[in-house]
Amino acid sequence: MKVECCWIGKTQEPYLEEGLRTYEKRLKHYLPFEVVLISDIRSAGKCLPEEVKRQEGERILSRLKPEDYLVLLDEKGQSFPSVQFARWMDQRMQMTHKRLIFQVGGAFGFSEEVYKRANAKLSLSEMTFSHQMVRLFFLEQLYRAMTILRNEPYHNE
Fold this sequence. Notes:
With 157 residues, the chain is α/β, with parallel strands linked by helices. It has five helices and five strands; from the N terminus they run βαβαβαβαβα.
């Protein structure tokens, strides 16, 4: 199964981009992995939040296939301690889906259509993070899960 992390728009901060490249490189040692950038809405500043979500939602949904397993990173999602998330990942990787897609929303979140299509929702914390920061935090947790599954010394309890 291929794992993809998708997000809307380019990462703005160079320090975040550097961290993302580091974890992307590390993750490729464990599984078929790709970061997918979905172009942002050019006129987003002139649109109402609902319209931005609708347009971003169309872009998210247009790249999905019926056999994809879509996981939204969402503040209303289920949260896990790192070891439990590793087990959750292991279970998902045993499924017959061709792609496991983790989707980070834009600044306003997801459209209703994207929520309806999602197979699962995950939350990183009860705190709210910017959609830019979530990218790095999630890739680190994904890497941590892979090291836990292989009993490698990255994670300390």
